[in-house]
Amino acid sequence: MSFRPFLWVVCGWLALVSSAHAIDCGASDVNVEMRRLLGKPENVCQSYGGKVMLIVNVASHCGFTSQYEGLEKIYRSYRDQGLVVLGFPSGDFMDQEFDDEGDIQKFCKANFGVSFPMFGKTSVKGEQASPLFKTLSAKTEAPGWNFNKYLVGRDGKVIGHFGSLTKPDAKDLRQAIETALKAPAP
Q: Is-contact 126 157, C-beta < 8 A?
């Protein structure tokens, strides 16, 4: 008996299973390429589609910087259920972010143990905003300061916006995340 037909069956099954969690990135609000912190570009939809995303514009020298701790906690609490927190450092508000991305990475890991994906320093407001933040702003509202939180469903569609004053452990944010996690994967 040949091993090849068995491999075809297994490969076909794996393709079917993996496509069951794929989303239509063409219809997604997060179908954009962004560069990872100290890394290469990746398409947000292709990398995280099918997960619930909490997208946050962050800064290292802000009065809200302690929210990193809560973001890491919420990420660890819900990641096995399909949540990913995505951090986007920005110096758009009073230049409260390091210029050097190596410094951003060291700061986040050393002070808050950040393990969720972080992206390269980007602009989040006005005409200079990245395509991702232009879309998030158009679908909800533009960030007025650091640590705005945008919730994106498993289908890649923006669900809502939570401002800087909303802490990661806030009841309304947690409820929105839990509701989004209950939605069936596309």
A: no
CA distances from 55 to 18, 36, 43, 73, 168 (A): 24, 13, 14, 15, 12
The answer to whether 156 and 104 have CB atoms below 8 angstroms apart is: no
pLDDT tens track for 173-186: 999 999 999 998 77
Tokens of 151: 């919730």
**Cβ neighbours of 155 (radius 10 Å):** 19
Taking alpha carbons only, the member of 157, 125, 152 closest to residue 55 is: 152
Q: By the 8 A CB rule, do 148 and 162 touch?
A: yes
Q: Which position among 11, 45, 62, 108 bears the catalytic label?
A: 62
Is position 62 annotated as part of the catalytic site? yes
Q: How far is the C-alpha of 183 from the C-alpha of 137, rounded, in Å?
A: 24
Q: Which pLDDT value is given to residue 126?
A: 94
> What does 75-111 look like in DSSP terms, one character per residue?
HHHHGGGTEEEEEEE--TTTT-S-SSHHHHHHHHHHH
What mean pLDDT do residues 6-30 have? 58
Instruction: Say what percent of the chain tops pLDDT 70.
Output: 88
Distance of alpha carbon 129 from alpha carbon 143, whole angstroms: 10
